[in-house]
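Table S2 (continued). Query chain:
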Amino acid sequence: MELQPIKPRRALRFRSKQEIIHLLEKFESVKKQTSLTKFCKDHDVPTGTFCTWQRCCRQGKYAIHGKFIALSVEPVPASTAAVPLPVFASINSGNLTIQLHQYVAPDYIQSLLDKPKNV
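Corresponding output:
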């Protein structure tokens, strides 16, 4: 009985999302000059894994632009200084001062005074 030589296993290499996106973009730029098999062999990536990356990219898993949206920058007109509202009532309790700018119910004032003080 002859012993068959054992084929060494391929070492697993984990790539970051940025590396995967970089390889996908690089293949897109050179795919007219080289085949998928040659590109994968040159970059030590199994072809099945690379095809999975491409499928995930099409499904949006490796979104190149992220989840941010572009906003246009428009100048904001200079506004005048905000006019402070007149004080309707002022309540002093110890070193706590509450200024009210409009009428509020007495139970709201009581809830403000009953809140525990953070020291």
